[in-house]
Design brief:
6-stranded antiparallel sheet; binds zinc ion; 2 domains; Rossmann fold
Length: 332
């Protein structure tokens, strides 16, 4: 019996070859990205690029199915590629340990038949959306938090784009993150499997479900939302503000000091009261507000947040880790 026999019965003769010819990028290999990448690797997608900036942490093990205790501290992209290669040695797996930015998005995400969003932040999603506006590549927006999630297959110009739905990333601190709402492993699994199913439709030449599906899996709710009929100026005129770095979250190492500075463009306005209670819960230590500053300690680092969204993180930390901390805690 061949590896894909059962899948071929469902998808039809020729599906093995079709999937083997496809190139897919999975951006972000947390809970959603792990599940999407695993299904696509096992289904025999010929090339998978696996992109993630983070290392495996203990708090990931509750829901990120590709990682084991022995992987703690190793780059997620590398561990994921090795694990999936052990599950399917017929396919090409290309791990990339990097932060997706306006500077590298074109290079890292060009030439794919499909881009799957496994990220946890809107900055990356808007970058993917910009790239998809330019190249016409299909992509699947997937988000999960708590026991809720959304999946939406997008292909411009046949469909609306992410900015037709949400013009700008939510303000910093305005969206729930895994840090504020928590996240349940099985709920992410359902949402990510739904996305992988839509991916298989796209990769075998079928039409995916074109409405945005929104789940609340704890309360047994499912809603289909029709994407907006009127198209935004960004996708109709191919205006790519994120790729052009007019919208950014920049992290740079501090000169002469151990630490990283994060700058947000355009500047936002942080809700210090909400952030303070969130950070105190997270870190288990007091945070202090002084005028335009909010200061405290988390993860062994000394952190200063500025009202305009800027952050200074002092201590042993890389720019990639600092961006992860920021999107996890402050949001975007
Ligand atoms: Zn649009």
């Amino acid at each position: 019996m061949s590896r894909y026999a059962k899948q071929r019965i469902f998808l039809g003769a020729g599906s093995d070859e079709l999937l083997r010819s496809r190139r897919v990028a999975v951006v972000g290999l947390g809970a959603t990205g792990s599940v999407i990448a695993a299904w696509l690797a096992r289904a025999g997608v010929g090339h998978l690029t696996l992109l993630d900036r983070d290392l495996v942490e203990r708090s990931n093990l509750q829901r990120q199915l590709l990682y084991l205790e022995a992987d703690l501290g190793r780059p997620k992209a590398e561990v994921a590629a090795a694990r999936l290669a052990a599950a399917n040695s017929d396919i090409e797996l290309h791990p990339v340990v990097a932060d997706l930015t306006s500077g590298n998005a074109r290079e890292l995400l060009s030439g794919f038949d499909l881009i799957c969003d496994g990220t946890d932040n809107f900055e990356a999603r808007f970058l993917i959306n910009d790239l998809a506006i330019l190249t016409g590549a299909p992509w699947i927006y997937t988000g999960a938090i708590g026991a809720e999630g959304v999946v939406w297959p997008i292909q411009v110009p046949a469909t609306a784009c992410l900015r037709c739905l949400i013009e700008e990333p939510p303000a910093f601190g305005d969206v729930d993150t895994c840090d504020t709402a928590g996240v349940l492993g099985p709920a992410v699994g359902v949402v990510a499997s739904w996305a992988a199913l839509e991916a298989l439709k796209i990769l075998t030449g079928r039409e995916p479900h074109r409405e945005l599906v929104r789940f609340n899996l704890w309360d047994d709710e499912r809603q289909f939302l029709r994407p907006p009929k009127s198209r935004c100026r960004f996708c109709t005129e191919q205006i790519t503000e994120f790729l052009d770095a007019r919208w950014t979250l920049k992290a740079s190492a501090l000169c002469g000091l151990e630490g990283v500075q994060i700058r947000v463009n355009p500047p936002g306005k942080l809700d210090f009261a909400a952030l303070q209670s969130r950070l105190e819960t997270r870190s288990g230590s007091p945070w202090k507000q002084r005028g335009m500053l909010l200061k405290g300690r988390d993860g062994g680092w000394d952190i200063t947040l500025f009202q305009d969204g800027r952050a200074l993180i002092h201590g042993a930390i890389t720019p990639e880790r600092a961006r992860s901390w920021y999107t996890e805690v402050v949001g975007c």
